[in-house]
Amino acid sequence: MPGCLAQDLVDRLLEQCAPFAFPMHFNERANGLAEIPAEAHAIAQHEHPHRLLVTTDTGKRFDVAAVLVCSGAGAFAPQRVALPEAAALEDRHLHYAVRDTARFAGKRVVVAGGGDSALDWALALRTTAARVTLLHRREGFRAADGSVAEMHAAVAAGEMDFVVGMLGALKTEGDTLAGVDIRTRDDVVSLPADELVALYGLVSEPGPIAQWDLDMRAGRIVVDTTAYETSRRAIFAAGDIAFYPNKQKLILSGFHEAALALRRAYHYAHPEKALVHVHTSNNATLKEKLTHA
Ligand SMILES: Cc1cc2nc3c(=O)[nH]c(=O)nc-3n(C[C@H](O)[C@H](O)[C@H](O)COP(=O)(O)OP(=O)(O)OC[C@H]3O[C@@H](n4cnc5c(N)ncnc54)[C@H](O)[C@@H]3O)c2cc1C
């Protein structure tokens, strides 16, 4: 089997889907899931006894017969500062990303973290901020050697500071940040600061799907392997988000799970129709569609 990179696989799959021209929606998050009471639905109850409403963060609403959740590791979110004062300062004086460097002009900024982002932003902000202090729990970094060397050179030139230690407390004055307490190996050091940029990397969270009232285990959705249906009727899960004994997180497994889930989902969408199983290799209509797309 020749090698195939992830993007190539995605491109080839999109190419294969194209002749079927089903609608796709990108860059939005499935947020809500609710049952639609049968009496509220336009379609006669005997044909479609069970409908679901999926809503997205852009306000779209999908009235569907079944849902297949393939949310993988979930949505990525920044690893947050685990201090009681942090939540109230978030997005005002505590930042998990730098979106506008002008916001830090003339400010005393602490950049916490030891990866490429922390080093890159500490170096970049030193030209506009009043003072930048890079804070990391150890001397070593998980970042490009060139950036580490550039940071040490900037510290030696007096352009910024580097402190080895961990955030111990955030000091506030009213609703603004006044400074941070840093726990070093032997002491606690207080540093005045106006803005804190914490770049500790990303963690995956199940996101809104965790609120869908599905049986979950260790952040994943429990499925019955007969059809990869979850604990709620007509809601299926496939891929890395699906949990069952001996599950292997492989692309191959996701394809198999999705195929079986969609066979059952078809019955929910078309309870009056029989499912006909065909292969692309010997079904003339399907072959024609894929060949002449
Ligand atoms: C480093 C690495 C190498 C790997 N190499 C291989 C390999 O060689 N072969 C192999 O078979 N497998 C490999 N795997 C495993 C493989 O990548 C996974 O099994 C596969 O990507 C799982 O696909 P998925 O669709 O379930 O999840 P994902 O690929 O994680 O995709 C889930 C998608 O859902 C989106 N999402 C999450 N929540 C929502 C929401 N609420 N609304 C809308 N979208 C949402 C996410 O943003 C994401 O785009 C590798 C994994 C890693 C980490």
From TrEMBL:
InterPro entries in the record: FAD/NAD-bd_sf, FAD/NAD-binding_dom, Ferredoxin-NADP_redctase_2
Record Pfam families: Pyr_redox_2
Span of domain FAD/NAD(P)-binding: 50-247
Keyword Oxidoreductase set for record: yes
Superkingdom classification of source: Bacteria
Alphabetical keyword list: Flavoprotein, Oxidoreductase
GO molecular function list: oxidoreductase activity
PANTHER family recorded: THIOREDOXIN REDUCTASE 1-RELATED-RELATED (PTHR48105)
Protein name: Thioredoxin reductase oxidoreductase general stress protein
